[in-house]
Write a structure and sequence with these properties.
- It is a single chain.
- This protein is mostly helical and 241 residues long.
- The protein has one domain.
- It contains 12 helices and no strands.
- The protein has helices at 7-13, 21-37, 45-54, 58-65, 70-99, 110-119, 123-145, 147-155, 161-174, 177-207, 224-233, 237-240.
- It starts with 6 loop residues before the first helix and ends with a helix.
Length: 241
């Protein structure tokens, strides 16, 4: 089939020899989002309006700091902090006047609700989410429409725990009937076969520290630890390093 906008990165990711092609897609989106955030766009009013409002999660805060633009990061975080302080000051004063205190029994104050929302929000995560969900939908679409992709999918090394959940959770919204049943059955098998493969490699890695096996070959276990981390946490950092 002719490749369209979202099929190209999906097919490219499934051409990579890796433990989770979906992590490859996500990491590229993440890299692009960080570069956009810390590029010239951080000085644009519409971008700063959003970053001031929602900020960054811990993971992406670190990536913003390591993006090579410390002045840009400082400017973005400064106006974000000013926005938070202004909001907190207003909500704290309003809560105290309205209820005689910030906390009512069995109720959250507006300030607490604001802080909860703030602590769960991230500009980079939001920027990634829409495109990433389209990638997942594209995987389901290609499974139904493209036999060459189906073979790529079945020949892959599976996926990490997080993206296994995403694939099976979103499949019923994108597929139905026989296609859905076949996809779920194949995905369950693909996931388990490859998780067991990596677990076996990790076991042999630990066995190699036993003097009884010191002269035995490493087989496929030398990089079993970072591959296991990738499978369990979606983190490819140790592999890419």
């Amino acid at each position: 089939m002719k490749e369209q906008l979202y099929t190209i990165p999906v097919n490219d990711a499934y051409a990579v020899d890796c433990e989770c092609p979906i992590c490859v897609m996500y990491n590229q989106l993440e890299k692009d989002a960080i570069e956009f955030t810390m590029g010239p766009s951080y000085m644009e009013d519409d971008v700063r309006l959003v970053t001031d409002e929602i900020g960054f999660c811990t993971k992406h805060m670190a990536q913003v700091m390591n993006a090579g633009n410390r002045l840009g990061a400082a400017l973005v975080l400064h106006t974000h902090m000013r926005k938070i302080n202004k909001d907190v000051e207003k909500l704290a004063a309003t809560g105290a006047k309205a209820s005689g205190g910030l906390f009512k029994k069995k109720e959250s104050s507006p300030l607490v609700e604001y802080l909860k929302k703030l602590n769960e929000s991230c500009y980079v995560c939001d920027k990634i989410e829409n495109t990433f969900n389209r990638y997942i939908k594209t995987i389901h679409y290609l499974w139904e429409k493209d036999s060459a992709f189906k073979n790529k999918y079945l020949s892959s090394k599976g996926m990490c725990v997080r993206h296994y959940q995403v694939l099976i959770e979103q499949a019923p919204a994108n597929m139905s009937g026989k296609n859905l049943d076949e996809f779920l059955e194949a995905t369950h098998k693909l996931y388990l076969d490859n998780m067991n493969r990596v677990a076996d490699d990790l076991e042999w890695f630990t066995d190699k520290f036993d003097y009884r096996y010191k002269d035995e070959p490493w087989k496929n276990s030398k990089d079993a630890l970072p591959r296991s981390i990738n499978k369990l946490t979606s983190d490819r950092t140790f592999i890419e390093e």
